[in-house]
Amino acid sequence: MTLPLDLFRALTESMPQLVWSCRGDGPCDYLGAQWVAYTGIPESEQLGYGWLEQIHPDDRAATAAGWAAAVERKGPADLDFRIRRRDGVYRWFKTRAVPEVAPDGTILRWYGTNTDLQELRDSEAALAALNADLELRVRQGTEAALATAEKMRLLAVSLETAQQITHTGSWSFDLDENHVIWSAELFRIFRLPVSDTAPPFDTHHALFLERDWTILSEAVRRATEYGDPYELELQLAGPAETPRFAVARGYPERDNAGVVRRLYGTLQDVTELALARRERDRAAERIAIAASSAGIGIWDWTVESGALTWDDRLYDLYGIPRGTPMTYDDWKSAVHEDDREEADAIVQAASAKGAIYTTTFRLLPSRRGVRHIRASGRGFLDHDGTPIRMIGVNFDVTTEVVAARLQEESAAQLKEFIRHAPAAIAMLDKDVCYVEASDRWMTDYGLQREAVIGRCHYDVFPHLPERWKVIHQQVLAGEVHRHDGDPFPQPDGKTTWLQWEARPWYDATRALGGMLFFTRDVTEAMELHTAVRSQTDELARSNKDLQQFAYAASHDLQEPLRAVSGCAQILRQRYHGKLNSQADELIGHMVGGADRMRSLIDDLLAYSRVGTQGAELTDVSLADSVEEARRNLLLAATEANAVVTVGQLPSLQVDRRQMVQLFQNLMSNAIKYAGTAPPRIEIRSWHDNDRWIMAIRDQGIGIPTDARERIFEIFQRLHTRDEYPGTGVGLALCRRIVERHHGRIWVEPVEGAGTEFRFTLSAPQ
Q1: What is the per-residue DSSP string for 8-72?
Q2: What is residue 195's three-state secondary structure?
Q3: Quick one: which H or E segment has residue 74?
Q4: Alpha-carbon distance 22 to 14, whole Å?
Q5: What confidence tier does 333 reach under pLDDT thresholds 50, 70, 90?
Q6: Does the pLDDT value for residue 144 go beyond 80?
Q7: From CA 526, how far away is CA 505, in angstroms rounded?
Q8: Nearest CA to 236 among 299, 200, 298, 186?
Q9: Helical H runs in 152-183?
């Protein structure tokens, strides 16, 4: 049935789409208020076929034809076309129309809606542009990487290997059970029958060349003992005429105590993986080659906020911990000061124009030296030409720059450069003999230049570990090796820890000339790390001892104390006044001593449990904590006629029970040490930067200046028990509670009589 016109209009005017209706033969007889408001033209001027005048000229013919076809076939119409907005701007809409059909098949009316899909189209266009730009950058990076590979034998070998099909198998090694688990692919890589049971670890040496098994065994040992992950390229056992290579990666898994319990990792057959990856996904291969060969990192800059989004490779490229929040200013700060102004100007110009740029600059010197970066990017503007975004890539072209410099400079200039470099550098030839070394190298290793140049490295260091000789041969084969902390045993039995990098160097004819060593002594840092770890372990043991003591105090010590106290109480009840005054005095000492011992044990228990048995920090009103402490002290406060004034106190993330104990101890002290006058206690707080400061002030007898630090130490008392009872643990307990909440407590000097304790608590972030 046909909807009443007033009901149809009410429904359409409540919808976000542009709504309309037409007669069965096609002419439009109703345009919703949204359509009229959007076009800015009265409905009367658009009825019939006048609405076509609002359609983009390029879309009118197709739109009219599509509408006519729908009328002809008496079926739904589904069209996309642009409609002119009242300000003259055309936006894309999706149009959907359905007919109302009479029982005899006659079309009575058409009902239609137009849904704005301009933003969807814009997003698709932006995504297409971004993909095209990234494809261009990747293609340029790939071309640059391939050009560099033609000049360097190492990259030539790598690219040749990368063109082969690759396979990866996974494994895990339970160190406690000495149990190895392999994936099926790992059996196939080693050309063994697939089985549910992997060969024991002590038989794996038969799967690798002997020299490579030595390297892998050392890496597994370091991963097990020190938790160091590893990544090694190894040769598998097999016929020499058809060698196969694999990349072994291993990662340690620690338990809660920090002990390595399991190793897991992968073995990638790089003999075939590269070619398979190229055939399976050429785009993925181009990205992988560019990333691994040219050091490509990708970034995304939001201009208005200055925020930068970096991928992991870019963090590694700049030597910044992964995940560190970055801004545009942070990037500028990382650029070498001599290149910073020019690089910033180029990027800003491209951003302002929404243009593409390419430039080269240096990073600030780091442990890896000065790195040269080639940067490319493209800016994006919004509809009014305002810069909104820029994306781009960075390439590490240090090797390319150094190679070009080596080709342009003579050997004498290179040697001079190395000799005076401010780092420990040694230049060796293919026979591992010294060609040149920096002054820093001579100083670090206690060498004389005349006794080193021309001599074999193994003669200079006769106790060099065998594994270093293996590394030397791999570097002379074109590989690059580095380590951030490698143990180097000395003849005197001590161990020196080195951070080092070894890479091949090439002469002006592009022939391998030998290898370069870059080293830095990091023994002090490693020893400090070991010392910190030892202290951490010692602290853990100390905490465990403290917990055991607390258990003993709460069980083993309390029981005999109850027996002594109970017997003393019985003696006083039965025999007080029946013996003599000396006996009454001794019994009184027994009762008092037992009570003091019980109080001391309770205080020590509270002190020991602050850090080990504290509750989870929750949102707590400190005003409620003070009120609970007041209720606990009600009897003592009433007897002393104490007056407590409490100001505005915040709600913070704290341990509620410990806050009550903290305020109760400080208020109890104020009552105890009030002197002859009734206690007057004032509690207030104020906010200071990222913390809250609490103040508890009294008008009592005060604390001597020279004792204001000592009173927070356990068992420290300024008065005898006859003058003021107590265990000497209360203020030490207060300090420990405050320190558990990452604050500090102290005595603030005040004018006149009294004492003011202050402590800090962290403000909510």
Answers
A1: HHHHHTTSSSEEEEEETTS-EEEE-HHHHHHH-S-GGGTTBTGGGGGB-HHHHHHHHHHHHHHHH
A2: coil
A3: none
A4: 19
A5: very high
A6: no
A7: 30
A8: 186
A9: 153-162
Q: Are 721 and 730 in contact (CB under 8 A)?
A: no
Token duo for residue 200: 């024991």
Q: Which residue, 398, 253, 389, 391, is CA-closest to 319?
A: 398
- Number of helical H runs and strand E runs in the chain: 24, 28
Q: State which H helix or E strand residue 482 sits in.
A: strand 481-489
Residue 747, Cα to own-chain centre: how many angstroms? 40
Half-sphere exposure of 37 (CA within 13 A, CB side): 8
Amino acid, single-letter form, for residue 150: E
Relative to beta strand 230-235, strand 107-116 is: unpaired
What is the DSSP secondary structure assignment for residue 701, as one 8-state letter?
Answer: S
Taking each helix axis as running N to C, give the angle between helix 118-151 and helix 282-294, from 0 to 180 degrees, rounded to the nearest 10.
Answer: 50
Cα separation, 707 vs 696, in Å, equals: 18
Contact 454, 434 (CB under 8 A): yes
Q: Which residues contact 219 (CB under 8 A, 6 or more apart)?
A: 228, 230, 232, 248, 250
Dihedral, CA atoms, 717, 721, 724, 725, nearest 10 degrees? Answer: 100
- According to DSSP, the β-strands at 424-429 and 512-521 are antiparallel
- Residue in the structure block whose two tokens are 């989870």: 616
pLDDT digits (tens, 9 = 90+) for 9-39: 666 666 678 888 898 888 998 888 888 889 9
pLDDT tens for each residue of 619-645 = 999 999 999 888 888 888 888 898 999
Q: Which amino acid is at 408?
A: E
Q: Is the distance from CB of 677 to CB of 641 less than 8 angstroms?
A: no
Cα 745 from Cα 695, distance rounded (Å): 10
Tokens coding 435 = 């060609």
Query: What predicted TM-score, i.e. pTM, was given to this entire model?
Result: 0.32
Neighbouring CB atoms inside 10 A of 43's CB total 18
Strand 245-254 relative to strand 691-698, pairing: unpaired
Q: Which position has the token pair 């005040």?
A: 750
Burial (CB count <10 Å: 0-12, 13-18, 19+), residue 275:
middle
**What are the b/e assignments for 429-439, b being 16+ CB within 10 Å?**
beebbbbbbbe
Alpha helices of 553-699 — where are they, by DSSP H? Answer: 558-575, 581-612, 622-632, 634-639, 656-672
How many Cα atoms within 13 Å fall on the side-chain side of residue 29? 11
> 660-684 burial by CB neighbour count: b if 16+ within 10 A, else e?
bbbbbbbbbbbbbbbeeeebbbbbe
User: Would you list the DSSP string of 96-146?
Assistant: EEEEEE-TTS-EEEEEEEEEE-HHHHHHHHHHHHHHHHHHHHHHHHHHHHH
Q: Beta 755-762 vs 643-646: how paired, if at all?
A: unpaired
CA distance 44 to 415: 89
